[in-house]
Amino acid sequence: MAEHIIAPHGTLTMVSAGKAFREIEKIPAKSTVLIDLSGVEQIDSSAVALLVTALQTARLKGQTVRLQPIPRHIMQFAEIYGLGEALARQA
Questions:
Q1: Is it true that the peptide bond before 69 is cis, omega within 30 degrees of 0?
Q2: CA distances from 55 to 34, 66 (A)
């Protein structure tokens, strides 16, 4: 089965992360999803929380999800909110 790539860029906020979440929802169950964060320059806390929710939802659908790469600034931000480990598990 093909790998589906979602590549947000620029500033990742609740709105743009919501768009990525809706894209993941459209991907068939048991698919492989790569979320490419290399183009994300800034992220806010609501986007990190929504990203973690999207990962959980994808797993429930039987999808394999990978976050690659996870830029250091995103990981540091996620760690502030206690979500670093959740993101690291998907790398």
A1: yes
A2: 11, 9
- Spans of all domains in the chain: 3-88
Per the CB < 8 A criterion, the answer to whether 34 and 2 are in contact is no
Judge: domain 3-88, CATH 3.30.750.24. Answer: yes
Distance CA 11, CA 2 (A): 28
Tens digit of each residue's pLDDT, the chain (91 residues)? 679 999 999 998 888 888 888 888 899 999 999 989 999 999 888 888 878 888 888 889 899 888 888 889 888 888 888 888 888 887 7
Task: Record the pTM.
Answer: 0.82
